[in-house]
Structure prediction request, 212 residues.
Amino acid sequence: MEMSNELDRLLFFEQARKVSEATYAEDPRNADNLTRWGGALLELSQFQSLQDSQKMIRDAISKLEEALSIHPKRHDALWYLGNAHTSFAFLTSKEDEARPYFEKATQYFQQAVDGDSDNEIYRRSLDVSVKAPELHQEIIKHGLSQQTLGGPGPSASTSSSSTKTATKNKKSSDLKYDICGWIILAVGLVAWVGFATSQMPMPPPPPPPPPR
Prediction:
């Protein structure tokens, strides 16, 4: 069932990307379309390899910045940009390289909140963005998800000591769920609402992450 939902999401946002690309060819100044395009690319980046994911996130950032050049105070585009920079930061294996992305993410989330202070998702994203650099440090410190971060996988010696760090890893994993789980879910839900006005057939929305 979960695999089917993932496939539905992949097919839906791939179709959304194609529709946005076709719309852009006819109306390149459509900020709504550029925002939807950026959101679709951000969603699709979750299904890619490391290098392809980074490229897709860069493309998403480019589309969202283009939307803001047309509509500078568009708060949903600002919010998507915050998520895009957060996602890219977590795909960066060095703390000093990731830091500017986290800082930009917080700035964009703040601007989104300023544009729509009653939006709970925006406010929640801003709150958890403060914890994101801490999570990134924990991942690097404990050698968690190194391949996801763009580094080499764990060695045999690292694996042999995994039991000793199980408790710390559990804590880091919980923190990762708190931050990434909410952000990824929020991206999916907001994107789904945004694309609902298009002419594409709608599959069922993605289910929320299971409770811990």
User: Anything to note?
Assistant: Residues 151-166, 171-179, 188-211 have pLDDT under 50 and may be disordered. The longest helix spans residues 166-195.
